[in-house]
Design brief:
- 33% of the residues lie in helices and 6% in strands.
- By secondary structure, the chain is mainly alpha-helical.
- A two-stranded antiparallel ribbon has the order 1-2. Strands 3-4 form a two-stranded antiparallel sheet. Strands 5-6 form a two-stranded antiparallel sheet.
């Protein structure tokens, strides 16, 4: 169940104060429209989880951006036994994303030591001995000029070094993995451009977030 916190609202907004709150339109009280009515009730969900209609031998995964708003009856052991918080990206995760993003699926990745400095990864998450052949083609699309400093290819050892540079420019636990992936998508096939532009992107995102907070006050 994705975004389970939104399932019980009368609106697509997650900031609705109360499902029963009436709207004032033209001086008259007006209830929620049928289209905005919730599609599921808390009682119905609880019965589906462990009531008479519950099925055995299945696992339920639920996600939410507002864990604290979930009813205690829904969060209790027996209904939701394992609670995992997906935090914003660490610098180690940023480096790992960079390497995976610019590495072909068929690249050999066993044997190279790539030990993180924050202890967040497993010991077996290293990369293989850098092969002699080029792993990635960073040719720009036809019609675009390739900067003289950009090589025609990128081997694994150089990719690891670039990922460390990328990591140094990403603040720890300030950006989601999705936002970092979105940034890299803007530089698809251009790892050097991604390194060159990341500092400016980080500053722009910080300003944008500050503006969002001000607008919400």
């Amino acid at each position: 169940m994705e975004d389970v916190d939104a399932a019980f609202h009368h609106s697509i907004s997650r900031t609705v104060e109360s499902p029963e709150k009436k709207l004032i339109t033209g001086g008259k009280e007006k209830g929620p429209s049928p289209d905005s009515a919730p599609k599921i009730s808390l009682s119905g969900l609880l019965n589906a989880l462990d009531g008479v209609g519950a099925q055995e031998g299945r696992l339920l995964f639920a996600t939410t951006n507002r864990y604290e708003t979930l009813d205690a009856a829904l969060r209790r052991p027996g209904r939701m036994d394992v609670h995992v918080e997906f935090k914003l990206a660490s610098q180690y995760q940023a480096a790992g994303l960079f390497k995976r993003f610019y590495m072909p699926d068929d690249a050999t990745t066993t044997g190279v030591e790539d030990v993180p400095d924050d202890g967040e990864s497993d010991k077996d998450s290293g990369y293989g001995t850098p092969p002699k052949e080029k792993l990635i083609d960073v040719e720009l699309p036809e019609g675009e000029k390739l900067l003289p400093s950009h090589p025609k290819g990128l081997d694994l050892a150089e990719l690891v070094l670039l990922s460390e540079k990328f990591k140094e420019n990403i603040p720890d636990r300030e950006f989601s993995m999705a936002s970092l992936q979105g940034y890299l998508m803007m530089h698809k096939g251009r790892p050097y451009d991604a390194i060159e532009c990341v500092e400016a992107w980080v500053q722009e995102e910080k300003v944008r977030k500050e503006q969002v907070v001000k607008d919400s006050v």
